[in-house]
Design a protein that fits this description.
- The structure is a single chain.
- The protein has a single domain (about 10-65), classed as 2-Layer Sandwich (Ribosomal Protein L30, Chain: A), CATH 3.30.1390.
- The protein has helices at about 25-35, 50-60; strands at about 10-15, 45, 65.
- The two termini are about 10 Å apart.
- The longest helix is centred in the middle third of the chain and has 10 residues, at about 25-35.
- A 3-stranded antiparallel beta sheet has the order 2-1-3, with no helix packed on it.
- The protein is an alpha+beta fold.
- Helix content is about 30%, strand content about 20%.
- Helix 1 packs antiparallel against helix 2 (about 50-60).
- It has 2 helices and 3 strands, in the order βαβαβ.
């Protein structure tokens, strides 16, 4: 999964939460919370770091790179 950078080139990625975490394991719920999501279909912008990419890689079925 590759991350797209914004037009400004500031090293940010936009992530959208697209699938509910109701039946997900607790570890995956904690990853979603750790990324900063509070509600479904929310789009957030995070720095493009290896730590954030690793978190996104843990739950690719729940997230979408905008």
């Amino acid at each position: 999964m590759t991350a797209k950078k914004t037009e400004s080139g500031s090293g940010k990625i936009q992530i959208k939460w697209v699938r509910s975490a109701i039946c997900a394991p607790m570890k995956q719920k904690l990853v979603i919370k750790g990324l900063g999501f509070t509600r479904l279909n929310q789009v957030i912008e995070r720095p493009d770091t290896p730590a954030i990419r690793g978190m996104v890689k843990k739950v690719p079925h729940m997230l979408e790179i905008v």
